[in-house]
Amino acid sequence: MNKTISQRNNVNIIGNGNQTILFAHGFGCDQNMWRFVTPSFIDDYRIVLFDYVGCGQSDINQYNPARYSNLNGYAQDIINICDELDLNDVIFVGHSVSSMIGSLVSIKFPDLFSAMVFIGPSACYINDTQYFGGFGKKELLELLDVMDNNYLGWANFLAPIIMKNEDKPELVKELEESFCATDPIITRQFAETTFFSDNRKDLSRIKIPVLILQCSDDAIAPDAVGEYIAQQIQDSSYVKLDATGHCPHMSHPEETILAITNFLNKQYQTV
Fold first, then answer.
1. Is 95 a catalytic residue?
2. I want to staple 56 with a disulfide (CB 3.0 to 4.6 A). Which of 51, 153, 164, 170 is the partner?
3. List 77, 95, 96, 103, catalytic entry
4. What per-residue confidence (pLDDT) applies to 2?
5. Beta strands 46-49 and 12-15: pairing type?
6. pTM for this structure?
C-alpha cells in the first residue's frame, strides 16, 4: 500500500488558527526541535510540523539518493506536503539549511508562502574571493571525511559547536543524539548537499517579506552571512539576536518567539 505524503514525512498538525505556520527543521534535526517555540503560536495559528525524508520519524524507505543530492529534493518534500494538505497563504519558518529550501519553494510557487522566517540562514557556506561564507572548501571536505571514518566522533565534535551554549549541556546532548539517531549514510549526504549548496543567486528572486534572525557567535552562519542575505532580499527584515550558537529556537526560545511575533504582527495586523 502506498503511503501518503503525511505518513512519509511524519506530518503533525496542531493549533486552532486559520492561517498556517509551517516549521521546517535544519540539518541533522527533526520536528521535535520546535517544541519550545510552537506553544506560543498554537492559539492563533494552525501549525504544521514534519520531518524531511531520512530524518526523525519519516519513512526512511522513501529516501532516494538521487532526489536528495541537491536541495530541490527537500524542497519537493515541502511542496508535496502543502499540496496534500491544500495549504496556501503559509508562513514558512525555516532553520538553517531549511531557509534556502523554503526559498526554492517560494521561487517555484510564489503564491504558496505569504512570508518567511529564516533562523540562522546561509546561502553559501564556502568562502570565495568576494564572499565570506565561514568555511574553506578543504575544511568542509575534511569534515565529510571525519563523518566517513568516525561518525560518532564527528557528532560528538560538531554538536557543541552548533549549539554553543555550554550552560545547557542537555541541548548539546540532544543534538548529538539526534545526529546519531539518523542513518549515517543519509546524514553524510545531507551534509554534503547542505554545505556545498550555493543559493546566492536565488535570493534576489524572493518577492515576499522575509525575517532574518541572525544569532550572535554563530560558527555555522556568521554575521557576514546573515547581513549578505538581508542585503540581497528586497523585502527583508534583519534582527541580530543576543542568542548565541546556531539553534536559538532551542537555546533561547523566548527571544526567538518575540522576534517572530513582532514580525508577524507587522505583516498581518493593521491598527
1. no
2. 51
3. 96
4. 54
5. antiparallel
6. 0.95
According to the 3-state scheme, what is the secondary structure of the chain? CCCCHHHHCCCEEEECCCCEEEEECCCCCCHHHHCCCHHHCCCCCEEEECCCCCCCCCCHHHCCCCHHHCHHHHHHHHHHHHHHCCCCCEEEEEECHHHHHHHHHHHHCCCCEEEEEEECCCCECECECCECCCECHHHHHHHHHHHHHCHHHHHHHHHHHHHCCCCCHHHHHHHHHHHHHCCHHHHHHHHHHHHCCECHHHHHHCCCCEEEEEEECCCCCCHHHHHHHHHHCCCEEEEEEEEECCCHHHHCHHHHHHHHHHHHHHHHCCC
Known active-site residue 246: yes
Cell numbers placing 10: 511524519
Boundaries of domain holding 130: 5-268
How would residue 164 be classed by pLDDT, with cut points 50, 70 and 90?
Answer: confident
Which of 30, 77, 202, 218 is an active site residue? 218
Q: What is the distance between the alpha carbons of residues 256 and 178, in angstroms, rounded to a whole number?
A: 22
What's the whole-number average pLDDT of the chain?
94
Residue pair 230/221 in contact (Cβ under 8 Å)? The answer is no
Q: Is 218 in the active site?
A: yes
Count: domains in the chain: 1
CA distances from 9 to 36, 51, 91 (A): 21, 5, 19
Out of 246, 249, 251, 252, pick the active-site residue: 246
